[in-house]
Amino acid sequence: MDMPESVAMRRNEAERSNALMKSRAAKEALSWFWVILAFLLIEGTLVQARVIPSGSMERTVLIGDHLIVSRIGYDAGVPFTPWHEPLWREPKRQQIIVFRAPLPEMGYPDFIKRVIGLPGDLLEVRRGVVFINDQPLAEPYRMEPPNPGDNFGPVKVPAGEYFMMGDNRNNSYDSRFWGFVPRPNIVGTPLLIYMSIDAPEEVWEPGHLGMRFATYLNALIHPREVRWKRLFRTF
């Protein structure tokens, strides 16, 4: 075989190899495209994961409970962007809801509370007891008995808005302090607890990724930190 033919063969092999690598890269990129698209679809319209950072809903949900939240019928949006669109479902009284708190100074954080006042309701708290349209509301889920020193209102819930309160009424930053929640702020409702880890409150607050990673690692090494009996509880 003369030199020019040998060079041509090597060139052809190199071209075939490059073409094969490009084909594999294209297939890999396409695979990742579908994975990302599926994630955006699921996260934006179906379900989201949330972790409870505070005790405002104890005993119903605890600090360190990890929840799957259903957005179906409540809200659709593009993850990691401010764009979202409210859908057709409306919250019911005493339903647990995840929502964007109307607190621009805090960046509209996600809160989880219970719907207490519906649009059009006349709401008042008398000696710790909630009255809706002058009728006392039965609340067996509350953390503690009514506090006689707790009084609020009366207020009328505006159309298209909701009054939210935590079950741990004495430790809940809710509508009594910052007002009503507009319907477009509602994200969804929790479905189940998929993980629950007994750890300090600050671990689950935004920005503490190092502490959170250490907590997960510690739970692997010391499984007793996991609240096993709470796993897969539904709402």
Descriptive terms for the model:
seven-stranded antiparallel β-sheet, 3 helices, 235 residues, elongated, single chain, four-stranded antiparallel β-sheet, alpha+beta
Structure summarized in a few sentences:
The protein has 235 residues and is of the alpha+beta class. Helix content is 26%, strand content 27%.
Descriptive account of the structure:
The chain is of the alpha+beta class. The chain has a single domain (46-230), classed as Umud Fragment, subunit A (Ribbon). The protein contains three helices and 13 strands. The strands form three sheets. The protein has a seven-stranded antiparallel beta sheet. Strands 9-8-7-10 form a four-stranded antiparallel beta sheet, with no helix packed on it. It has a two-stranded antiparallel sheet with strand order 3-4. A hairpin with a 2-residue loop joins strand 7 and strand 8. The longest helix is centred in the first third of the chain and has 44 residues, at 3-46. The protein is elongated and about 100 Å long. The N and C termini lie far apart (77 Å).
Put simply, the count of helices is: 3
Task: Report the β-strand fraction as a percent range.
Answer: 25-35%
User: Which regions have little confidence, pLDDT < 50, spanning 5+ residues?
Assistant: 30-44
Give the class-level CATH name.
Mainly Beta
- Read across the widest sheet, the strand sequence of neighbours is 1-2-13-5-6-11-12
How is the biggest beta sheet arranged?
Answer: 7 strands, antiparallel
Tell me, rounded to a whole number, the average pLDDT.
84
- Structural class determined from secondary elements: alpha+beta
CATH superfamily: Umud Fragment, subunit A
CATH topology: Umud Fragment, subunit A
Radius of gyration: 26 Å
User: Between the first and last Cα atoms, what is the distance in angstroms?
Assistant: 77 Å
CATH architecture: Ribbon
Cα shape: elongated
The total number of structural domains is: 1
Q: What is the number of E strands?
A: 13
Order of helices and strands: HEEEEEEEEEEEHEEH
